[in-house]
Amino acid sequence: MPERQPVTAHPPSGPDGVLRFPGVRYGTAERFQPPRPAAHSSDSMRPGPICPQLGSRLEAAMGPPREEPPQSEDCLYLAVATPALTGARPVLVWLHGGGFLSGGGTLPWYDGGRLAADGDVVVVSVNYRLGVFGYLVHEGVSEGNLGLADQTLALEWVRDNIAAFGGDPGNVTVFGQSAGALSTLALASKPESRPLFQRAIVQSSPDPAIIQKREKALEIGRYFADTLGEDPVTASVEQLLSAQRSTLRWNAAKDPTSTRPPFGLVDLDVRLSDPLPDLMIGYTTQECSAFAIGVQDAEIRQAIVDQTEPLFGRPSRALAQQYGGAAYSYEFAWTPEHGGYGAIHCLELPFLLGTRESWRDSPMLGDTSWADVERLGAQMRLWWTEFARSGSPGTQPSFRITHALENTP
């Protein structure tokens, strides 16, 4: 076990009383190589850089990220939000979404201060490698799933270091959304990562059946390499992102209705093994409407919208049922009274994470005031943090989130 990294800086607490460490290095990695533990932690007061990436396909719904950290291949950083450096609080580790192509745990959207303050918990938000940097599969270059290896290393960092931030390494909940939710299921299925956490909150995971088979991933990798025309190991970041963009277009042209990411988890069998983590799992009522924003062809647009139930709803309920009634399941059905796009993919995020400024003018919130977001958000943060504390959010096993809680028998 590596030596515990001391906390070398003590930031002033914010107006919410929370201490924030937004740029803690947890690992290093050469391009297309497995990650290694960091020799020391910087405890930087600046957000750690996020993985190089193209723009998000959900920017029309979420809005552009504000005060985005710099992008760098040296991106294995995490952010910690804690009420105090003493004590032993429940720990929630956040794995962001973005289709394995975009996003970052150190983005302002995912500031964990509200969760930390409301629930007296420690929140850790993780950057991991994305796109070709984290999920390329190409013979002699990369075997894939490097982003998942990064997440495992971050959980090992939490095990070894979170006590210094006031957290309990024996009470860790991984919670993720979209690609981060599917990653959470994968981590719960792997023997090396399963012992690193006790609970899991799975928000809007796509059907695990979308995980690529190796043969298909190799086909995508070959197209990428041919398009790149350079050695992927030595090509510039700009060249890699340009070839990634071309590969995304090629892949989308084959099926314009598909929401399967061309770069993502490969050759993994999601089987939640004993001992099972405590589980809370759910989805938003109109997930796939987010992916249809701006699609001009009415037939393609409707085909995308219609994937909510087979891609998100049905698999979510099926995974909950695997627990024999021991899991908590939810449906997020809240919608803005005016504007927005319905209860779409990502809509629950402003109620849990981020700040008023980071979500300002987010299109998916319509004209909803921040006071209205906070009214429901305070209750949701209580459910999430109570689940992290005890394994129960304090609701019925199945519940529906609208403008108020609805329990389902």
From TrEMBL:
Keywords: Hydrolase. It is an enzyme of class 3 (hydrolase). InterPro entries: AB_hydrolase_fold (IPR029058), CarbesteraseB (IPR002018), Carboxylesterase_B_AS (IPR019826), Type-B_Carboxylest/Lipase (IPR050309). Residues 1-71 are annotated as: Disordered. Coiled coil: none annotated. The keyword Acetylation does not apply. Its EC number is 3.1.1.-. It holds the Pfam family COesterase. Transmembrane segments: none annotated. Residues 17-234 form the Carboxylesterase type B domain. It comes from the Bacteria. Belongs to the type-B carboxylesterase/lipase family. This is Carboxylic ester hydrolase. It comes from Amycolatopsis silviterrae.
